[in-house]
Each structure stands twice: as C-alpha cells, then as structure tokens.
Amino acid sequence: MEKKRSMNTHFLSAAALILCAAAIHSGLGESWILRRLDPKNLPPTPFGGPAATHKILRASWHLLTMVWLVLAAALVLSASQPVDPRGQGVGLVIGAIFATMGGGIVASSLLGNPRMLLRHPAWLFFLVIAALAWAGCR
To answer: Are 22 and 62 in contact (CB under 8 A)?
Structure first.
C-alpha cells in the first residue's frame, strides 16, 4: 500500500501570506500611491518626460507584485512534492528573498524613521514569510 504524502503546510502558509502581500501591495499601492502621483511633478528620464516616469513607476510597482505571485506559485508547487529536494532549494531562496526585504525595511527604518516600523508592518509580514519558507525546508 502506498503511503499518502502530506502537503508542506509551511510552504502553503508562506504562499498564502505572499498572496495577501501581493494583493495589498497592488491594490493599496495603486490607490494610495500611484494614483496620487502627479506626473507633472515627476522628473523626466532618458526614456521620456514626466509621463514616461509615471508609467515606469507604475510598471515597476506591479512587476514586483507579479514576481511575488510567481514565488507563491513556486511554493505551492514545492508544497505538493514534499520529498523533492529541489523544493527545499526553492524554500531557501524564497526565504532569503523575503528575509532580505524585511531586514532591509528594518535597517532603513532604524537609520531614518523608526516609527515607520509601526506604521508600515510589511517588514514583519516579510520576516514571517521567510521563517515559514525556511521551516518548510526541515
């Protein structure tokens, strides 16, 4: 009789948090930041005037969201194959990515405005994702 394999719940939990982060980043970022930017007040770039700068900012913003969605998908796929060592590599890399983002926010806030750590909890979200991804590698 074949033993039923269980899903890697740490990877699935990290993927769910990444999906939440992506939705928040895309939705609130669009409404609270990108729509409020006045293209006339942005500097020109070698690619065009202020309107081009605005388009580049919007594309870059949403590109990060898409990258997170791909990372979440990689964790879900790895969660379905818990004995595959490649999944551990995926978990380690994704954990490192989110630990770096979370640590970067903490470091820049401590050097600049430590109150931002309370106002914008993305750093905590990212560090929890990193911990879950790493825990899924055990």
So the answer is: no
38 near 98, Cβ under 8 Å?
no
Q: How are the residues of the chain apportioned to helix, strand and coil, as percentages rounded to the nearest 5?
A: 75, 0, 20
| pTM reported for the whole predicted model | 0.90
71 in Cβ contact with 97 (< 8 Å) = yes
Alpha-carbon distance of 128 to 20, in angstroms, equals: 13
Residue 18: count other Cβ atoms within 10 Å of its Cβ.
Answer: 27
Helix (H, G, I), strand (E, B) or coil at 121: coil
Angstrom CA distances, 40 to 17, 35, 37, 49, 117, stand at 36, 13, 9, 9, 31
Closest CA relative to residue 25, chosen from 53, 55, 54, 66: 66
The predicted-structure confidence for 31-80, as pLDDT tens digits, reads as follows 999 999 999 999 999 999 999 999 999 999 999 999 999 999 999 999 98
CA 14/CA 91 separation, integer angstroms:
9
Nearest by Cα to 25 from 67, 70, 62: 62
In angstroms, rounded to a whole number, what is the distance separating the alpha carbons of residues 72 and 21?
Answer: 10
